[in-house]
Amino acid sequence: NLPKPMLHSDIKGEVPNVRALMKEVNLFVDDIVLNVMFIIEYTILLPLNSPYTIL
């Protein structure tokens, strides 16, 4: 038995999986970026703007 060549439908079936994976990776990266910006904002920007700066 020879291995069957990959059908076009098989390849098309893989594409949504890749898209879903990329979407999850993008969401994960977005979360990290938001968290980092949140931390930066609260540790650097707020103390700078606050009249009660804690040194």
UniProtKB/TrEMBL annotation:
Report keywords, A-Z: Membrane, Transmembrane, Transmembrane helix
The protein here is known as 2986_t:CDS:1
Membrane-spanning intervals of the chain: 32-49
